[in-house]
Amino acid sequence: MSELPICVACGMQYAEPRSDCPICEDERQYVPPAGQQWTDLNTVRASGTYTARIEEQGPGLVGVGSTPNFAIGERALLVKAESGNFLWDCAGFIDDDLVAKVRELGGITGIAISHPHYYTTMVEWAHTFDVPVYLHEGDQQWIGRPDPALKLWSGATLDVAPDLRLINLGVHFAGGTVLHWPGGENGRGAVLSGDILQVIPDRRFVGMMYSYPNLIPERPEIVRRAAEMLEPYEFEAIYGAWWDAIIRTDGHEAVQRSAKRYLAQVG
Known about the structure:
Blueprint: E1 6-7, H1 22-25, E2 38-39, H2 41-47, E3 51-58, E4 61-67, E5 76-81, E6 84-88, H3 96-104, E7 111-112, H4 122-129, E8 133-136, E9 150-153, E10 157-161, E11 164-168, E12 177-181, H5 184-187, E13 190-194, E14 198-199, E15 206-207, E16 209-211, E17 216-217, H6 220-230, E18 237-240, E19 246-247, H7 251-266
Parallel strand pairs: 6-7, 7-8, 8-9, 13-18
Antiparallel strand pairs: 1-2, 3-4, 4-5, 5-6, 10-11, 11-12, 12-13, 14-15, 16-17, 18-19
Domain Metallo-beta-lactamase: 73-242
InterPro entries: Metallo-B-lactamas, RibonucZ/Hydroxyglut_hydro
Protein name: Beta-lactamase-like protein
């Protein structure tokens, strides 16, 4: 359904035309000063502006996105797990070339998305590869294009494969989720975080915000809970939402020291 409307600012694809984008009108995003604008995949592809971008991001992790960045600009990560390839988060741009490149890597067995800002064209991806998309039910209200391929889950964790676990930290959005891959970083463990745990310039720390663009802090009890939930897990690396936004070492302690610093600042 490549003619369905897509918000230019956030990349959310909706099931039918509308005048507003609830994602952008929420205080965790924004409507650009020029106002709400719309496009669709047919128009984006025909423009020739965007091309597929596939780059290794770490051991067994391949970034999937476009040049230039589309909408918010996140890149997805193809996880080469022992259980099979799995796609973490969703790149809003998708065309035949990008699909062919992902198929050359072995395709994907499923998709999971950290939070609604990256839902974008998830149904297009699900239909193209005939796979489910796992979303936490806490964010159900933000789905722009309902579809049977979308699988809502509840609770704190979900094992989408024997070696891949989703963990609902609740940071940024109620359904804000990270992916723990024990086999990542050559067996030292990795967390794929979107911007639920934001990889910031000082790689000794991560950010945890309610709204990143509008600089609204996350609630202290949510930050405390997130750190407590991740404490039992072993992981060396953290992979954020952006190209090369990676903490290569000491990821577990980066989360713990970040929460401690945050809670000290907010009292």
